[in-house]
Amino acid sequence: MSSASPNFLGTAASEHSPKFALDKDFVASYRSVAPPFGFNGLGEIVYRRTYSRLKADSTREKWFETIERVVNGTFHLQQKWLAQNNLPFDAAKAQRQAQTMYDKIFYMKFLPPGRGLWAMGSPLTEERQLYAALNNCAFVSTGRMWEGEHTAARPFAFLMDAAMLGVGVGFDTKGSVAAREQNILVGAPSTRPQSTFVIPDSREGWVESVGLLIDSYLDPKSTDQFDFDYSQIRPAGLPIKGFGGVTSGPEPLHELHDAIRQTLGRNSGNPLSVSSIVDLMNLIGKCVVSGNVRRTAEIAFGDPADAEYIDLKNYEVNPHRAAYGWTSNNSVFATMGMDYSDICKRVQLNGEPGFQWMENARRYARMGEETDRDSRIEGANPCNEQCLESYELCCLVETFPDNHATLAEYLDTLESAFLYAKTVTLAPTHWRETNRVMLRNRRVGTSISGVAQFVTRRGIDQLRVWLDAAYQRIQQIDTQVSELFCVPTSVKTTSVKPSGTVSLLAGATPGMHYPESRFCIRRVRISKLSDLLPALEAAGYYMEDDVVDQSSMVVEIPIDHGEGIRGLEAVSMWEQLALAAFLQKHWSDNQVSSTITFDPEREGPILKYALDYYQYQLKGISFLPRLDYGAFPQMPYEAIDEEKYREMIKRIKNVGLHMVEDTDQNEPEAERYCSNDSCTL
């Protein structure tokens, strides 16, 4: 066929087509534009420390370059999906969509999750194809540990593997019920022949060693006891390429192996206990943190009538758990109409457990809108904004309604935001069970932040109007995008995440939460080697030596959350619950992540009554007593009055931080999960 002949077979995307890239002149037009980072420089500092990756020339990305990497990675992922399925790729249309997405991110109308800003388009996904790292969180059930193609250790190995990739994981304790019902007893491998496993110096090697050890106790067919050779693991203090941070050496893994032996040794000869399941998951989380994956996130779900489970964080009853029990939030699978009296006495002390109503999560999309599409969910992610099936991951994307002048502008932003998140669902993971669920569900969590600012400026009724219109628009976008990629529409599409560093970039309050006060000081730790320090000093920011880490400086940044906004002390427990229910009805078909702050003396005794009413309006909720822990040096957050704020802001001048080159050769450490605003910066 000559080059002039028509193509009767159509034009499909080709894996050999030029790799998608934004127009260079378009990207260059943003080079000298000052990004609208929020909160008087805090957003820019957080960006530079957390998401600005090293480039091939060993210099660090600037904001306009980070967005280029992320958008190019997003559309290259689409291009690969279409090529693999012999579907057409419209390069001109993709370029237009990509430029729109770029502009929306640059001006922070929406932002990919921290996971996406850090990993999308990087060698982690482009070369190593570790697409799981683009997802925020996951859930795994232990209820079928002894069923299917995998061994009993699979849920524990999955949690460890995911946590080492920065994915937060929820889990349940149903494996204990299965062990009792099937009369499966924890073994005693010390009586068996010994095998030595040489641990490879890799994430996979660490995970495999833990799986082998747990299976030697839990797999009825196991014939070995395992000893481990740690000689291949790099010593402590070396840079971790791609992930940031430095190596920990073998010691955290060695300690984990010893702790697993102790935990399961105590359980030997009996069915696997609830305590052992949670202990194993928590000990793995502690190892991941010690292994220089800086943070991890877990949530455990148990039976509200199980005294053993409820007492797991009672360190008077279980003093040994104080060393690792902090690695998970603990919640219960609440049942409609249950008596909340006794369990609320525990909540009054430390805020736990939280509550998850699976009946509501399975029955409803937005509350009041019944659906049968999500009946297989079994739990939720650590921040409790996504109900999930076992081994399912979720991708979140964050939008900022208050950063838009009109509803029409916000509806336009949703096209780019949802397209980003839906694209992530095209990427396969290295877990078969996960792919099986995600190919079917394509679950997305389009989230909103700055809710408190929007309500303060425009009122709750305008929020209702915007959210109802936006939800309907997202369903339309989902239909269009799903047809483009030839995939199912998403089983659910919206959520309210608690947010963390991403909302700081945009100058937004996190999720639905109100700030502690309108004015505050946020303190950020920065390496003394960072080229940002001289620029910050020249700009007039106060800084001092870190009292904990001699290699860092602490920089103080004055924050104003906005005129008229109330501090959290002025927002009652009842108003917070009402706002969560409002968002569950008008926006989130997944869940609303909400931690309700309450006065333990005044509101603590009536928690039971609050749950009696709101169990019919929510899918999940957690509580936090407002306790006075007193002041301590260099607190990450300190409330101040307006006079102090004005005094600090007078000293600060704009020196163009976005143009400062940073020669720090360390990769940024990944944001490890869907964190909330209380995390130390």
Automatic annotation (TrEMBL):
<dbReference type="Pfam" id="PF21995">
    <property type="entry name" value="RNR-II_ins_dom"/>
</dbReference>
<dbReference type="Pfam" id="PF17975">
    <property type="entry name" value="RNR_Alpha"/>
</dbReference>
<keyword id="KW-0846">Cobalamin</keyword>
<keyword id="KW-0676">Redox-active center</keyword>
<dbReference type="InterPro" id="IPR050862">
    <property type="entry name" value="RdRp_reductase_class-2"/>
</dbReference>
<protein>
    <recommendedName>
        <fullName>ribonucleoside-triphosphate reductase (thioredoxin)</fullName>
        <ecNumber>1.17.4.2</ecNumber>
    </recommendedName>
</protein>
<keyword id="KW-1015">Disulfide bond</keyword>
<keyword id="KW-0170">Cobalt</keyword>
<dbReference type="GO" id="GO:0031419">
    <property type="term" value="F:cobalamin binding"/>
</dbReference>
<dbReference type="GO" id="GO:0006260">
    <property type="term" value="P:DNA replication"/>
</dbReference>
<dbReference type="InterPro" id="IPR054158">
    <property type="entry name" value="RNR-II_ins_dom"/>
</dbReference>
<comment type="similarity">
    <text>Belongs to the class II ribonucleoside-triphosphate reductase family.</text>
</comment>
<dbReference type="InterPro" id="IPR040763">
    <property type="entry name" value="RNR_alpha_hel"/>
</dbReference>
<keyword id="KW-0235">DNA replication</keyword>
<feature type="domain" description="Ribonucleotide reductase alpha-helical">
    <location>
        <begin position="22"/>
        <end position="122"/>
    </location>
</feature>
<dbReference type="GO" id="GO:0008998">
    <property type="term" value="F:ribonucleoside-triphosphate reductase (thioredoxin) activity"/>
</dbReference>
<keyword id="KW-0560">Oxidoreductase</keyword>
<feature type="domain" description="B12-dependent ribonucleotide reductase insertion">
    <location>
        <begin position="195"/>
        <end position="263"/>
    </location>
</feature>
<dbReference type="GO" id="GO:0004748">
    <property type="term" value="F:ribonucleoside-diphosphate reductase activity, thioredoxin disulfide as acceptor"/>
</dbReference>
